[in-house]
Write a structure and sequence with these properties.
The protein is mainly α and 321 residues long. It is built from 13 helices and 5 strands. A hairpin with a 7-residue loop joins strand 1 and strand 2. The N and C termini lie far apart (65 Å). This is Olfactory receptor family 56 subfamily B member 4.
Length: 321
């Protein structure tokens, strides 16, 4: 056990680094997970970069709906990159050690990008709500300034509210254990090693989750409930089909994202009995949404699909087909 004196802390000892052990219960064969993890990470990077390039190069996609999608692509790249390089380093090079500052930085980054994803989904839900329920006012309400203000608001909200999470974790005293049975530095996984009371850490994480993700989820589903109510009142089957086609990609990914969060919360309650499940879900939740989001949008939104074909040089082939 790596324990070194700490002259700054009033306590006698303080660990100098943490050791990320990997996936609990399967340490002997966890290396086999490296290939699918690497493929998912490369897919997340490649697909989201392609989305960004397509939206940037196609003037027809310079609209609020696609601008929010571009922001989501940036968030997805950030979310996957906060965890996957370190996980792959653990699986490939046995690079299990991580310094305390780097660990607390990872705690902040994971929470920030996770809540950013939730916030951007809310912005996209509001965008679709205004587009479908108030189509005549849409061009005057949802402007470039609206996109910028909404994005900046989400960034400031998450950036400020999450600052106490790593600060509170850094204030704990880690005097004996430094082995984390995880692939990444999760807030509760790290603070559970502390020798002093961590009740404030647990309470703040709980309040943060309910206040940020919980409020976002309620507002998102309220928006889609109003959208569905408005769509069902339309007399035109064509109008209903068009409205649902623009909303279905958002709704699919939103349902997946929040269902995964709920499952992750529930499995953490049984974490002591089956520790592998919450750890695996936690890791997958940082890489599957970033790799799944661009795939769903590219397949379900015809304008974006056409733009991607054009960027890839397949536009002439598609038009002939």
């Amino acid at each position: 056990m790596d324990i070194v004196p700490n002259t700054i802390n009033k306590s006698e000892f303080q660990v100098s680094e943490f050791i990320l052990m990997g996936f609990p219960g399967i340490h002997q064969w966890q290396d086999w997970l490296s290939l699918p993890m690497a493929l998912l990470y490369l897919l997340a990077l490649g697909a989201n970069l392609l989305i960004l390039i397509t939206i940037s190069h196609e003037p027809a996609l310079h609209q609020p709906m696609y601008q929010f999608l571009a922001v989501l692509a940036v968030v997805d790249i950030g979310l996957a990159t906060t965890s996957m390089p370190k996980i792959l380093a653990i699986l490939w090079f046995d690079a299990k050690t991580i310094s305390l500052p780097h660990c607390f930085t990872q705690i902040y980054a994971i929470n920030f990008f996770m809540f950013m994803e939730s916030g951007i989904f809310l912005c996209m839900a509001v965008d679709r709500y205004i587009a479908i329920c108030y189509p005549l006012q849409y061009p005057f309400i949802v402007t470039d300034a609206f996109v910028i203000k909404s994005t900046v608001s989400v960034v400031l909200r998450n950036g400020l509210l999450i600052i106490p999470v790593p600060i509170l974790a850094a204030q704990r005293h880690y005097c004996s254990r430094n082995e984390i049975d995880h692939c990444l530095c999760s807030n509760l996984g790290v603070t559970s090693l502390a020798c002093d009371n961590i009740i404030i850490n647990k309470l703040y994480q709980l309040v943060l989750a309910w206040f940020v993700a919980g409020c976002d989820m309620i507002l998102v589903f309220a928006s889609y409930a109003l959208i569905i109510h408005s769509v069902l009142r339309l007399n035109s089957a064509e109008a209903i089909s068009k409205a649902m086609s623009t909303c279905s990609p958002h709704l699919i990914l939103i349902l997946f994202f929040y269902t995964a969060i709920i499952l992750l919360s529930v499995t953490h309650l049984a974490g002591r009995k089956i520790p592998l499940i919450p750890v695996l879900l936690n890791v997958l939740h940082t890489v599957i949404p970033p790799s799944l989001n661009p795939m769903v949008y590219a397949l379900r939104i015809q304008e974006l699909k056409a733009g991607i074909y054009k960027v890839l040089g397949l536009g002439e082939y598609v038009s002939r087909k």
